[in-house]
Amino acid sequence: MILPRFYPIFDDVAWLRRMLPLGVKLVQLRIKDQPQDILRAQLAEARDLCHAHDAVLVVNDHWQLAIELDCAWVHLGQEDLDEADVNAIREKGLGLGVSTHDKAELRRALALKPDYIALGPIYPTILKKMEWHAQGIEKLTHWKEQLGDIPLVAIGGMNVSRAEGAFAAGADIVSAVTDITLNQNPEGRIREWLEICK
After folding, report:
1. What confidence score (pLDDT) does residue 117 get?
2. CB neighbours (10 Å) of residue 139?
3. Is residue 1 in some structural domain?
4. Residue 106's domain spans which residues?
5. Which of 1, 44, 4 is nearest to 167 (CA)?
6. 126 vs 94, 109, 134, 158, 181, CA distance in Å?
7. What DSSP element (H or E) covers 100?
8. In total, how many domains does the chain have?
9. Is residue 78 in some structural domain?
10. Residue 133 confidence (pLDDT)
11. Residue 129's pLDDT is what?
């Protein structure tokens, strides 16, 4: 399947209730440090919301629950790969996205034949403490040369004004987090993203 070019990431299903009606068609739910029952309830609601809005839900990290709840996609960071059963994910037919930061991680990701590979942070990000410095958009071009037909996601410090440069450098998809969630008008910002990512 051809994935949409705009890929917001949210930490609570409440965001999906607000943003899916605006036309978001690809979304990741990245929930950390929540009890299993809350996590399961949020993912189940997110799955149903995305189904109702003909959108793709990507579950960050929680691959067992993604399988259990019959979700369609999972995203794994490098640390997640250490513990995840990629064979089980594949046997269930889930799409797989993988985070990368350096050449060793890229080789590891490519060996899994994922459905997309993310590179980041492209720009400095306030989202989380990272050992990785900003990669810069030039690295997107190098990564895309290695990926071939595998979609490349640019993430980290992305905003509306930086998206065009990321696409020009080789990104197929641009992911945004705080540019939306910390915006005074998140719905308005989503509309801007959808317009430039047509």
Report:
1. 98
2. 18
3. no
4. 6-196
5. 4
6. 30, 25, 11, 11, 12
7. strand 95-100
8. 1
9. yes
10. 77
11. 58
pTM: 0.97
**What would the two tokens of residue 183 be?**
């915006």
Walking along the chain (198 residues) 10 residues at a time, the average pLDDT comes out as 95 98 98 95 98 98 97 96 96 97 96 97 75 85 96 96 97 97 97 96
Reported residue count of the chain is 198
Q: Residue 26 sits in a domain of what CATH number?
A: 3.20.20.70
Residue 105 CA to residue 118 CA, distance in Å, equals: 11
Q: How many CB atoms lie within 10 A of CB 178?
A: 14
Distance CA 98, CA 119 (A): 9
- Residue 97 pairs with which residues in a beta bridge? 75, 116
End-to-end Cα spacing for the chain? 17
3-state SS, residue 90: helix
126 located within any domain: yes
What Cα–Cα distance (Å) separates residue 142 from each residue in 37, 53, 71, 171, 178? 42, 35, 32, 10, 26
Cis status of the peptide bond prior to 114, with omega within 30 of 0 = no
